[in-house]
Specification:
The protein is mainly α and 196 residues long. The chain has helices at 3-23, 29-36, 40-46, 50-72, 78-96, 99-102, 112-133, 143-157, 163-176.
C-alpha cells in the first residue's frame, strides 16, 4: 500500500471507530467518510462493505487492547496492571455500541469473533498469572470470570450518557468492594482470598 493510501486507510479506521463509539454500529458510512476527510469512493476502495469496515474497527481495537496488556506486563505492580487493563477492556466494550452484535456469525469473516476472543483471553491471562504470583488477586479468580464481569458492566452502561466513565466507576466499585477500605465484614476474604 502506498503511503498516501495507508494514511487514508488509517484515517478511515480512526474515524469509523470514533463515529461507531458515538452513534453505534449503524453509523452512516457517509458520515464516517466525512469525519475521515475522504470521499465515499475512497472509503469503499479500502472497505468494500460496511461489514469489512466494522470488522477492521473491531480487530484494530482488540489489537490495541492486546498491545496494552503487553505493555502493562512489565509494570512493577501486577495487581494494578491487571486492573488498568480491565478498565481498558471495559472502555473498549462500551465504545463498541452494537459492534459485536453486528459481527455475529453468518456475515463477513466467520472466525473473527473467535480469533479476537482468544487474543483477549490470552493477553489477560498473562496479566492475571502475574497478579496470582504476586497474590494480588484471589487464587480462584479466572480471566473468563473477569471478562464476563467487565462485559456485564459494559452492557449495563453502553447507553449511559458517559458510559465509559460509568463502567469504570462500577468496575472500581466491584474490585474495591462495597466496604470502606480496611472495614471488611468479619469472616470475609480480602482480594488475595485470605481471611482477615
Amino acid at each position: 500500500m502506498r503511503a498516501d493510501a495507508r494514511r487514508n486507510y488509517e484515517r478511515i479506521l480512526a474515524a469509523a471507530g470514533a463515529v461507531v463509539a458515538q452513534h453505534g454500529a449503524e453509523a452512516s458510512l457517509e458520515e464516517i467518510a466525512r469525519h475521515a476527510g475522504v470521499g465515499s469512493a475512497t472509503l469503499h476502495r479500502h472497505f468494500p462493505s460496511r461489514q469489512a469496515l466494522l470488522e477492521a474497527v473491531f480487530k484494530d481495537r482488540v489489537e490495541t487492547l492486546c498491545a496494552k496488556a503487553h505493555d502493562l506486563a512489565v509494570e512493577p505492580d501486577p495487581g494494578a496492571a491487571l486492573v488498568t487493563w480491565l478498565q481498558a477492556v471495559g472502555a473498549h466494550a462500551v465504545t463498541n455500541r452494537g459492534l459485536g452484535a453486528s459481527l455475529m456469525p453468518g456475515a463477513g469473516d466467520p472466525t473473527l469473533g473467535d480469533t479476537c476472543h482468544t487474543m483477549i483471553v490470552n493477553a489477560g491471562s498473562e496479566l492475571l498469572a502475574r497478579a496470582h504470583q504476586a497474590q494480588a488477586v484471589r487464587p480462584d479468580v479466572t480471566i473468563t470470570q473477569l471478562l464476563k464481569l467487565v462485559g456485564a458492566i459494559a452492557l449495563a452502561t453502553e447507553h449511559d450518557h458517559d458510559g465509559a466513565a460509568e463502567a469504570d466507576r462500577l468496575l472500581t466499585l466491584v474490585i474495591d468492594g462495597v466496604h470502606p477500605r480496611g472495614m471488611r465484614a468479619r469472616g470475609t476474604s480480602d482480594v488475595t482470598g485470605e481471611d482477615q
